[in-house]
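Teaching assistant's notes for section 4

Start the section by putting this record on the projector. Ask students to predict, before seeing the second block, whether Peptidase S1 domain-containing protein will look compact or extended. Collect guesses on the board.
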Amino acid sequence: TLIRSLTSKATLNEYVQPIPLPRTGSDLPTGTKCMIAGWGLIDQDRDTSKLFETQVSIYSRRKCSLFYPQLNSGMICAGSFHQLRDSSQGDSGGPLVCNNVAQGVVSFGYDSPPGVYARISNYLPWIRRVMNK
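Reveal the predicted structure now:
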C-alpha cells in the first residue's frame, strides 16, 4: 500500500483547512447532494490549470450496481445524468464532499455518470490507525 504524506506540516489558512471524516459507516441517502472537485480533463480531452467543482447526487446501491456489477461496500456512486456532471480522467484522489464531510475519493467510472468513489466510512479503522502513527 502506497501512503503519501506531506513533506512538512500544512499551513492552515482560508484555502487550506481540515475536513471532518464520516462518524459512522451508514450509507448516505439516495439523492444526497455532494460536491466534487479536481484538475482533471474537461470534455474528455482538454487539460486545465484551474480547479473545477460541481455538484452531484448519491445513487442508490441497487441502481449503481446496474452500471457496475463489481460494486462493493467500499464503493459509493454519484453523478448527475441531467447535466452530465461527473469526475473525469485526472480527478482520481479528489474529494466527494457531502454536507461538509469527506465521504468519498474519486476512483473510477465510464465516460458518463455515475462515477465510483472509494467510500471513506468503510476505511475509518485503517484511517484512524494511520493517523495515530
